[in-house]
Amino acid sequence: MIKLEICCYSISCALVAQQTGADRIELCASPSEGGVTPSFGTLQHALQRLSIPVHPIVRPRGGDFCYSNTDFEVMKNDVARIRDMGFPGIVFGVLNEEGHIDRLRMRQLMSLSGNMEVTFHRAFDMCFNPHVALEQLTELGVQRILTSGQQQSAELGLPLLKELLQASQGPIIMPGAGVRMSNICKFLEIGITEVHSSAGKIVPSAMKYRKAGVTMSSDDSGVDEYAYHCVDGQLVESMKGVISLVQRTN
């Protein structure tokens, strides 16, 4: 069975994804940072309100994946808490200063994960040698690797994705980054069994009053704070329809 994982930044989005056919949720916070660890309240609501598997991300901050000792202690605490809450899976990744898999720290996190499925996230796309990284993650017992094929989008990374898919002796290779209705067939055609998408759209805020000249952003990026990221249920449904069609014809 081909699975569709949807990246969600709120419980509201996760509910939409579930209702429209998602097979699994990657639960995050802060889309502007590419996803960081969700709050305890969000984790609690996920367990209470969602019936499909939810895999929270453990990422203490945005930016790179080479963490300070303090960052790593936070990660260990979060992994243990998520394990004890009863989630079926978890998402994390750690690199060292040279851009290789930090195997010592990964072993610690893997041990703390208990029986949860572990997805190594797109830190993989920032590592020095993807083939060596695949071997090391296989040895560590990682269940899957979320990757764009070390390109800005998974579609551009298709050549490496094919190589990884053929070479993998363990981890599921799951394409992510720019996976949409327009290109999902390209991943299914090479034999991919799981795909990851944010299936997102920007929704305007319900606020009618807008305070001019005041922003919560610390930079000048021109971010519209009266709009937010949301899962597009129609897109999830359409992608799931394509997946179902491919499965029936194979």
Tell me briefly what this model is.
The protein has helices at 11-19, 40-49, 69-85, 103-112, 130-140, 158-167, 184-189, 233-249, and strands spanning 3-8, 24-27, 54-56, 89-92, 117-120, 144-147, 172-175, 194-197, 200-204, 227-231. It is of the alpha/beta class.
Task: Write a concise keyword list for the protein shown above.
TIM Barrel, globular, alpha/beta, 250 residues, four-stranded parallel β-sheet, copper ion binding, 8 helices, single chain
Q: Output the CATH topology.
A: TIM Barrel
- pLDDT < 50 runs, ≥5 residues: none
Radius of gyration: 18 Å
Q: Give the CATH H-level superfamily.
A: Copper homeostasis (CutC) domain
Using the alpha-carbon principal axes, give the shape.
globular
- The amount of helix comes to 25-40%
Give the CATH class: Alpha Beta
Distance between the termini: 11 Å
Strand order of the largest sheet: 3-2-1-8
Descriptive overview:
The protein is an alpha/beta fold and 250 residues long. The chain has one domain: Copper homeostasis (CutC) domain (TIM Barrel), CATH 3.20.20. Helices cover 36% and strands 17% of the residues. The protein contains 8 helices and 10 strands. It has helices at 11-19, 40-49, 69-85, 103-112, 130-140, 158-167, 184-189, 233-249; strands at 3-8, 24-27, 54-56, 89-92, 117-120, 144-147, 172-175, 194-197, 200-204, 227-231. The strands form 3 sheets. A 4-stranded parallel β-sheet has the order 3-2-1-8, with helices on one face. A 4-stranded parallel β-sheet has the order 4-5-6-7, covered by helices on one side. Helix 3 (69-85) runs parallel beside helix 4. The termini are close together.
